């Protein structure tokens, strides 16, 4: 592949063991103890695999208005980001 005259190597995605998902109660964005336990497992993996980059996305179900769900998803992603950063993991919210 070439971009503006420069050859770019296509990077093969590395299979990753970081597949743990945090779930929230209906309408909630605060982290439960179960969510923190899951995030702690992810933190351990990320510390041992510093080359792995993670993009956070917050989601909500179809109940509620679109505007409400977008706001809730952002709050959820922000809480997870803050938790990771409190453990020394740098995050990008997508």
Describe this structure in words.
Strand 3, helix 2 and strand 4 form a beta-alpha-beta unit. The protein has 94 residues and is mainly alpha-helical. It starts with a strand and ends with a strand. Helix content is 39%, strand content 9%. Strands 1-2 form a two-stranded antiparallel sheet. It has one domain: OmpA-like domain (60s Ribosomal Protein L30, Chain: A). The protein has two helices and four strands; from the N terminus they run ββαβαβ.
Identify the quaternary structure here: single chain
Question: Looking across the biggest beta sheet, what order are the strands in?
Answer: 1-2
Give the H and E element order. EEHEHE
> Roughly what percent helix?
25-40%
Computed structural class: mainly alpha
How many independent structural domains?
A: 1
Main pleated sheet: 2 strands, antiparallel
Shape: elongated
Uncertain segments are: 1-13
Overall average pLDDT = 78
Termini gap: 26 Å
Note the beta-strand portion: 5-15%
Q: Find the count of extended strands (DSSP E, 2+ residues).
A: 4
Radius of gyration: 16 Å
The appropriate CATH architecture is 2-Layer Sandwich
CATH homologous superfamily title:
OmpA-like domain
Text of the CATH class? Alpha Beta
In DSSP terms (H or I, runs of 4 or more residues), the helix count works out at 2
CATH topology: 60s Ribosomal Protein L30, Chain: A
Summarize the structure.
With 94 residues, the chain is mainly alpha-helical.
Give a quick set of tags describing it:
39% helix; 94 residues; single chain; mainly alpha; 60s Ribosomal Protein L30, Chain: A; elongated
């Amino acid at each position: 592949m070439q971009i503006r005259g420069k050859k770019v190597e296509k990077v093969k995605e590395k299979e990753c063991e970081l597949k743990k998902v945090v779930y929230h109660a209906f309408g909630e964005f605060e982290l439960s103890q179960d969510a923190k336990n899951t995030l702690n497992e992810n933190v351990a993996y990320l510390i041992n695999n510093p080359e792995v980059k993670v993009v956070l996305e917050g989601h909500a179900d179809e109940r509620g208005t679109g505007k409400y769900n977008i706001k809730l998803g952002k709050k959820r992603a922000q809480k997870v980001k803050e938790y990771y950063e409190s453990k020394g993991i740098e995050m990008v919210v997508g």
